[in-house]
Amino acid sequence: MERGMYMRHKEAVIIGAGPAGLKAAKSLCEAGASVTIIDRNKDLGGQLTKQTHKFFGSEKQYASVRGIEILKILLNDLLEYGTQCEILNETSVVGLYHDKVIACVKDDKFFKIKAESIIIATGASEKSIPFENNDLPGIYAAGAVQTLMNQYGVKPGDKVLMVGSGNIGLIVSYQLMQAGVEVVKLVEAAPSISGYLVHASKIQRLGVDILTQTSIKRAIGKEQVEKVELWNLDETWQGMEGSEQTLEVDTVCISVGLAPLTELLMQVGAEVMYVRELGGNVPKIDHRYQTTVKGVYACGDVCGIEEASSAMVEGALSGIHAAFDLGYTIDDEKRKVKALKEELKFLRSGPHAAKIRAGYNKLGVMI
Amino acid sequence: MIEKTGIPPREMVKKEFPKDERVLINPKAIIECYKEIPCNPCETSCPFDAIHVGEDINKRPVIDFDKCTGCGICVFNCPGLAISVMQLKEDKALLKIPYEFIPRPQKDALVNVVNRSGEVITVGLVKRVQEGKKQKQTALLHIEIDRDFIYDAITIEVPHGQ
Ligand SMILES: Cc1cc2nc3c(=O)[nH]c(=O)nc-3n(C[C@H](O)[C@H](O)[C@H](O)COP(=O)(O)OP(=O)(O)OC[C@H]3O[C@@H](n4cnc5c(N)ncnc54)[C@H](O)[C@@H]3O)c2cc1C
Ligand code: SF4
Ligand code: SF4
C-alpha cells in the first residue's frame, strides 16, 4: 500500500452512506455546512441498494415505495447541493483518532482527513450461528444473497433453506422466489415468527413452510452443500436428539440478526454499552445523537438495529444538531426537531418496537 | 397458531369479510393485516377514504365496506400484500390479487389457485392482468373462481425455476 500521508481538512464528515448518513448529509447541507460522505462501497445507499420490496411506514418515510426507489430520492436531494456535498465512495475508513482525524483507504492509497464534526452512520454487520460444516460453500449470509440477486442478477442456488424468520429472512425468501429459486423451508429457533406476519403469510401461501423451534444441526456435502439436517429445539433452545430430518438443498441462507458496527466509535473513544435489545454494543448517545466524544455523533443501525425509516429520521436529526454545533443557524430548528422526534416516537410505538423501547431505556436515553 | 406458521385460520379470515355475504355483490377489499405494525399506505392510498388506520400508524386498518368501491388501489399499495378484492358473480367469484412475479400469467389462462397454506385448491381463470406505472411493478390479477372458494382462495401458484 502506498502511503500518501497528506491530510485534508473538512468541516463535516459522514462515515457511511446508508439512509441515515444520506439524510444527515442533507440536513447539514441545508444548514450551509460543507459535507463529505465516505462509503466503502461503490454504490451509495447501504442496505437500501438491495431492497427491491415496497417499504412499510407512513408517507413521510416513503411507505409503499421500493427501497431502491427511496435511495434515488435521497441521492437526488443531495445532487442539488453540488460540490457542497463531496462524495468519497469506494473509500474505507480504517481508523478514527481522538483528535477527529479519520484514516481512509481508497484505491490502495492511504490518507487522512481532519474533521470538525463527524457523524458515524456505519450500519451493522450480519451475525452468524455455529453448526457443523457452516463454512461449506453454498452457505451465505442473507445480505450476500441479496447482493448477488438484486445487484448482480446471480442466483445463489436452486434450492434454499432459510434460517431465521425476522423481516430480513422473510423478505429475502420472497426475493429468492421472485428470482426463480425454490425456498424449501424456513426454520426459526424461537417459538414464534419474529418478523411481520404479513411477510410470513406472503411466503407461506406460496408454499414455503415455516418451522418454529427448529434449527439447523449440520450441513452435509463434499465440495458444497448437498443436504442439511434440521432438528427441533426444546424449551431451553437445545437440539433434541432423535428429532432430526434431512432436507435436500444446495444453499443455506443465514439471517439471524445484525450487530451494530461500532469499531470506529470505540477507536475514537466514545463510550459503548452492551444492549442485547439493540443488537449488541451501541454508543452512549445523548438526546442530540452526540456520543460521549464532543463533535462525534452516531445515527442509524449503528445505534441499535432498527429500520431504514427510523435511520432516516435519526440521520436528519443528527445532521441538524451537528450543524448547530458547528455554528450554523437552522431555519425553524425547534419545530423541525420536534416534528422529527414525533415521527420517531410513532415509529417506535407499536408492539413490534417493544424491544427497541426497552433497549433505549437500558441505554438511558429518552428519544 | 398464526404466530407459528403465518397461516390465519378460516374463522380469522371470515372476520375480515362483510358479515352479510350479499354485500360482496359489489367488489370489496378484504384486508388481512392481523398484527399491529407501523404502516398505513392502505389508508393514504384509498381515494374513497374507506380505510382507517389513524394517527397512530401502528393500529390495525379498519375498512368501511359502505365506502369501498373495490377499485383495488390499496391492493398494489400495500407493502405487505395483505389486501385482495372479492366480488360475487352468481355461482362464480372474482378475486383481485397483487402479483409480483415474472412472467405474468396471460389473460384467459387457467391457473392453479392456492389457499393460505399454499395448497392448490381449485383452478381459476385469468380475466385480466392489470398493470400501470402507478402500480410500481405490482400487477393486479383478476381471477375468476368458483364461489365455494371465496374464504380459501388467496393467490395463484407460482411456477418454480424460471
Ligand atoms: C432484507 C432487508 C429488508 C429491510 N426492509 C426494510 C423495510 O421494509 N423498511 C425499513 O424501514 N427498513 C428495512 N430494512 C432495514 C434497513 O435497510 C436498515 O435499517 C437501514 O439500511 C439502516 O441504515 P443505516 O444508514 O444505519 O445503515 P446501512 O444502510 O447499513 O449503511 C451503512 C453504510 O456504511 C458503510 N460503512 C460501514 N463501515 C464503513 C467504513 N469503515 N468505511 C466506510 N464505509 C463504511 C457501509 O458500506 C454502508 O453503506 C431492511 C433491511 C434488510 C437487510
Ligand atoms: S379497494 Fe379501492 S375503495 Fe376499496 S379500500 Fe381499497 S382503495 Fe379503497
Ligand atoms: S398497507 Fe398493508 S401492511 Fe400496511 S397497514 Fe395497510 S394492510 Fe397492513
The residue-averaged pLDDT of chain B reads 95
Radius of gyration of chain B: 15 Å
Describe the sheet with the most strands of chain B: 7 strands, antiparallel
Helix content of chain A: 25-40%
Spatial arrangement of strands, main beta sheet of chain B: 1-4-5-8-7-6-9
What is the assigned CATH homologous superfamily of the largest domain in chain A? FAD/NAD(P)-binding domain
Weakly predicted, low-confidence segments of chain B: none
What is the straight-line distance between the termini of chain A? 43 Å
Outline the structure in words:
The complex is a heterodimer of chains A (367) and B (162). Chain A is α/β, with parallel strands linked by helices and 367 residues long. Chain A has two domains: 230 residues, FAD/NAD(P)-binding domain, CATH 3.50.50; 116 residues, FAD/NAD(P)-binding domain. Chain A is 29% helix and 26% strand. In chain A, the strands form five sheets. In chain A, strands 1, 2, 3, 4, 5, 6 and 19 form a seven-stranded mixed beta sheet that branches. A five-stranded parallel beta sheet of chain A has the order 8-15-9-10-11. In chain A, strands 12-13-14 form a three-stranded antiparallel beta sheet, with no helix packed on it. In chain A, β9, α4 and β10 form a beta-alpha-beta unit. The model of chain A has no long low-confidence stretch (mean pLDDT 94). Chain B is α+β, with helices and mostly antiparallel strands and 162 residues long. Chain B has one domain. Chain B is 12% helix and 30% strand. Chain B is built from four helices and nine strands; from the N terminus they run ααβαββαββββββ. In chain B, the strands form two sheets. A seven-stranded antiparallel beta sheet of chain B has the order 1-4-5-8-7-6-9. In chain B, strands 2-3 form a two-stranded antiparallel ribbon. The radius of gyration of chain B is 15 Å and the shape is globular. The mean pLDDT of chain B is 95. Chains A and B meet through α5 of A and α1 and α3 of B. Bound molecules: flavin-adenine dinucleotide and iron/sulfur cluster (2 copies). The site of one iron/sulfur cluster has 12 residues of chain B, from α3.
